[in-house]
Structure formats: structure tokens, C-alpha cells
Write a structure and sequence with these properties.
Blueprint lengths: L2 H52 L2 E2 L7 E2 L3 H6 L3 H32 L6 H14 L3 H10 L5 H8 L14 H11 L2 H11 L4 H9 L4 H29 L3 H7 L12 H11 L3 H29 L5
Antiparallel strand pairs: 1-2
């Protein structure tokens, strides 16, 4: 058989066997994806749909749920503790997220200048992001800002009288904001990776034109980083709204003095598991979904005016 004939036979065999081979490959792919699909269905989708149903019921975990329509949602308008939780949570999000991202970006810029032992510094700065949300760190934080904590010992060295920072309504939330800002490691690593991708030619050209460091930072670095800034803003806002462990440990699960650290998630938890009002807790959970979705949608809408992509 000539070479041309062999090629034609191979082409006909490929067309004949192609669908069968693709079908076999698809089955293997679906088999590997099966655990993920099972988790999506049974761990995420089914509980979400169940909570949506429970949000329209009166359910105390001990008796069958009883359908009550929109009563749980109308009850929110007259729930003073809910409004207190919203005030605390919005304050925490709007203060801690910008401070955290500014600190993360500044440190990323410093580390991007070729510091010796960069891997060590990067690991040390990233460590708080790994352990900052743990119960152990929350307990440690409560001790540091307690009446006999490290902060008061330092203040006493300078002759300044201290107090229990976590027991004072005017300072309790500030300690949690400080803890939130301290966990800047994850956005810092992302900023550092983005800084390494900025073309050196842009900075060199600006320097030749007489632009100083500050001018180069604001006119070149920041515009090129806006997609990464936007990414970190969205992620950190979502994470801040979901903060729970710190407030629960520091406040002892009560919301702190005068509900000063009553995070939304903490109020949701106490409504469902302390008060056994699971129907109302489910409604609160869906309100949180709407709030986070609204913040995310606003961020995407506003991004059109300040996020620049290097096309």
C-alpha cells in the first residue's frame, strides 16, 4: 500500500473510532468529577434549598417546621439586636478591609524591592492569614487586650493606666478590627505576585522622563494593579462579612459589652443554636447572602470606572 493509501486508511479509522474514544475520555472525566458533584449537591445545594424552605417556617429543631410565610422576614424590621449586629458588622467591614489592603500593598511594595530572605519574610507575613481565624488566636487576642494583657503591661511601662480593652464597649470592636487587619498575609502575597508581573520597561521609561518613585507608583504601578486590588477587595469583603470565630471567642458568645462586638454571623448563630429559632436563623442567613451579593454587585458596577486591564 502506498503512503497516501495508508494516510487515507488512518484518517477513516480515526473518524470511525473518534466518537468512541471521546466518549471513553468523557466517562473518565465524569468519574473524577463525581466527588465534586456529590459535594456540590449534598453539602451545598441541598442545605441551601433546605434553609430557604426553613426561612418561611417556625422551626425549633425539636418539632416539625410549621409554615408561617414571610413572618420571619417582617420580624427583622422590628429586631433591635439585628440592627445592632448590622451596625457592628458594617463598621467592621468598612474599616478593617481598607486598612488591611493598604497595609498588604505597602508591605508587598517593600518586599518587591529585593529584600534578602524574601521567602522567609513572605512566610512570616502570610502566617497570620493561616491562623488569624482560629480559636487559639482569638483566645490569645483576648488575653493580649485583657485587663492584665500585654498591651496594658506596655502602657504601664510608660505610666499610662490600662483597662480591659475587650470589656469596654468603646474599644472592644477596635480590637477585632486590629485582629482583622493583622491577617493581611493572603492579599499581600497576591499583591507581591502581581508586582512581579509589571513590565520593568514601563518603570524605566517613566524614570527616564523624570518621574520620581511616588509618581511612578501612582501613575504606573497602581493602575496596573487595579484588577488585583479589585480581586482582593471582593474577596476580603466577603470574608469580613463571614467573620465569626474572633467575635465568638472574644465576646464569650454574647456579643460583648452592650453588643459592641455582635457580628451578624454571631447573632445568626445564637438565634439558631442558642435560642433554637432555626427558621429565623435561616431567614437571617439568606439576608446575609443578599447583603454580600449586593456589595459584590456594587463592586463590579463601580469597577468599570477605576479598574484598568492591560489589553
Amino acid at each position: 500500500m502506498s503512503a497516501l493509501g495508508e494516510l487515507r486508511a488512518l484518517s477513516r479509522r480515526s473518524r470511525r473510532d473518534g466518537p468512541r474514544v471521546r466518549h471513553r475520555d468523557n466517562r473518565a472525566a465524569y468519574l473524577f468529577l463525581l466527588p465534586w458533584f456529590a459535594g456540590l449537591l449534598f453539602v451545598t445545594a441541598v442545605p441551601m434549598l433546605a434553609s430557604l424552605y426553613f426561612s418561611f417556617t417556625k422551626f425549633n429543631l425539636l418539632q416539625p417546621p410549621r409554615f408561617i410565610g414571610l413572618d420571619n422576614f417582617t420580624r427583622m424590621f422590628h429586631d433591635e439586636r439585628l440592627w445592632a449586629a448590622l451596625r457592628v458588622t458594617f463598621t467592621y467591614v468598612l474599616v478593617s478591609v481598607p486598612l488591611q489592603l493598604v497595609l498588604a500593598l505597602l508591605l508587598a511594595v517593600v518586599l518587591d524591592r529585593g529584600v534578602r530572605g524574601l521567602a522567609i519574610y513572605r512566610s512570616v507575613f502570610y502566617l497570620p492569614s493561616l491562623i488569624g481565624g482560629s480559636a487559639a488566636i482569638a483566645v490569645l487576642w483576648k488575653q493580649i487586650f485583657g485587663a492584665e494583657g500585654l498591651v496594658n503591661h506596655v502602657l504601664a511601662f510608660f505610666g499610662v493606666p490600662g483597662e480591659s480593652w475587650v470589656a469596654n464597649p468603646s474599644t472592644a470592636l477596635s480590637t477585632l478590627i486590629t485582629l482583622g487587619v493583622w491577617t493581611f498575609g493572603a492579599p499581600m502575597v497576591i499583591f507581591l505576585a502581581a508586582l512581579r508581573q509589571i513590565p520593568v520597561e514601563y518603570l524605566e521609561a517613566a524614570e527616564m522622563d523624570g518621574a520620581g518613585r511616588v509618581r511612578r507608583f501612582w501613575s504606573i504601578v497602581v493602575p496596573l494593579l487595579t484588577p488585583i486590588i479589585f480581586f482582593n477587595v471582593v474577596l476580603q469583603i466577603i470574608g469580613a462579612f463571614q467573620s465569626f470565630t474572633q467575635a465568638y471567642i472574644v465576646s464569650g458568645g454574647t456579643g460583648g459589652p452592650a453588643d459592641s462586638t455582635l457580628f451578624y454571623t454571631l447573632y445568626l448563630y445564637t438565634s439558631g443554636f442558642a435560642n433554637l429559632d432555626m427558621g429565623y436563623a435561616s431567614a437571617l442567613a439568606w439576608l446575609l447572602v443578599v447583603i454580600i451579593g449586593a456589595f459584590t454587585a456594587v463592586n463590579f458596577w463601580a469597577a468599570k470606572s477605576w479598574v484598568f486591564y492591560d489589553d
